[in-house]
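Hi everyone, sorry if this is the wrong subforum. Our group has a chain we'd like a structural model of before ordering constructs, and none of us has done structure prediction before. Sequence below.
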Amino acid sequence: MDVSIIVPLLNEEESLPELCAWIERVANENNFTHEIILVDDGSTDGSWKVIECLRQKNSNIRGIKFQRNYGKSAALNEGFRTAHGDVVITMDADLQDSPDEIPALRRMILEDGYDLVSGWKKLRHDPLSKTIPSRFFNWVTSKVSKIALHDFNCGLKAYRLKVVKSIEVYGEMHRYIPLIAKWAGFKKIGEKVVEHHARKYGKSKFGVGRLITGGLDLASILFVGKYGKRPMHFFGSWGIAFFLFGFVVSIYLLISKFFFDKTGFTQRPLFFTAILALIIGTQLFVTGFLAELLARNDPGRNTYLVEKKIGIE
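Answer:
Right subforum, don't worry. Here is the predicted structure as tokens:
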């Protein structure tokens, strides 16, 4: 199959027929064998009924319905598990992403050799309350992740099939799929300026609160990506540093007590600093030890991506 188009949606009954017809027209014009995977993330309107009707008319359309709203990341992850196309395209259901971009995105994956291509809505038809925080968020994410993208959160992206089968998206991590792919070893990540349309139906499902959750998710994914398989390296290093600091200060106070200053330990503020450092160091070391045990008992810990094998069945 040439291409799989994954569309996560929540209460988008008005836009679905128009979007599917648009995708179908583009696919037919380019002679693509394709599938359209519509993932209903717990809609409370008539979105699922619309999907059922569309499926009856077009066998290329597949539908997945969640029992409740789990979030965009869960919808994308389920779509990734279902996709079969050589190239996987994701786009939002609100008609702000243009299916006309599909052929060019597919070419960048197959001909230019990219593992992932992210859309860049250079000219946005959104209010300033969305565009200004989004630009700040993208700038911070680009600097921290060291991935040169202008629009991490753009719903219009293209992936090599191997990429979506090798990553897991959860929580609100859909904003950081390029970073997740990079941690998984897919480092050829590109960008394409894409057309952005004004919202035609409904209203945005995201508010200002995503800036806070986005920052927390970024910190989480950076930590898990770097120390997820070796937590003791993080907690243990800091634990030893605090413990050694407290130990050295304690030795200094002990020597000072007997040779220089006869003042009692408990009357010196440095004594409490040393005790606090020893306690924090011990707690961090124990935390690292427990985290290491949990990581080693994780069934997926020893699952690594192997690009090639020789002489091994």
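For your construct planning: Residues 231-259 form the longest helix (29 residues). The domain at 3-226 is CATH 3.90.550.10 (Spore Coat Polysaccharide Biosynthesis Protein SpsA; Chain A).
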